[in-house]
Amino acid sequence: MRTVTATEASRSFAALLDQVEQGETVVVTRGGRRVAVMGPTTNGNGSAVLNLLDRPQVDERFAADVESAIASVDSESPSWPED
Predict the structure, then answer these.
(1) Three-state SS letters, the chain
(2) Where are the domains of the chain?
(3) How far apart are CA 61 and CA 53, in angstroms?
(4) Tens digit of pLDDT for each residue in 24-74?
(5) Among the CATH numbers 3.40.1620, 3.10.350, 3.20.20, 1.10.357, which is that of 2-38?
(6) In DSSP terms, which residues pair with 4 in a beta bridge?
(7) Backbone angles phi, psi at 62, to 5 degrees
(8) Nearest to residue 30, comparing CAs of 12, 10, 13?
């Protein structure tokens, strides 16, 4: 893991991206404090998330709680007084 200052990161951003692309993790500091971490990303395209959204698995107790909350709400709201 490499550590660079924000100034160094700014001056050599393209080179840092090349290093990250090769698998290196870079910590960026400002005033001696860690402010960012750059690292390689996964190569996923979101298909796993889409699959989960297509096949939701609802917890039965949670669904019952939601239905109960909806049923407890008074659907008739009071009207606004006229001027």
Answers:
(1) CEEEEHHHHHHCHHHHHHHHHCCCCEEEEECCEEEEEECCCCCCCCHHHHHHHHCCCCCHHHHHHHHHHHHHCCCCCCCCCCC
(2) 2-38
(3) 20
(4) 999 999 999 999 999 998 877 788 878 878 887 778 898 899 888 888 876
(5) 3.40.1620
(6) 28
(7) -65, -45
(8) 10
Single pTM value for the model: 0.53
Tell me the two tokens of residue 65.
């709680």
Task: Look up tokens 């990161």; give the residue.
Answer: 9
Amino acid at 75: S
Retrieve residue 79's tokens: 């009207």
Cα(61)–Cα(40) distance, integer angstroms:
39
Q: Chain-centre distance of CA 59, in angstroms?
A: 23
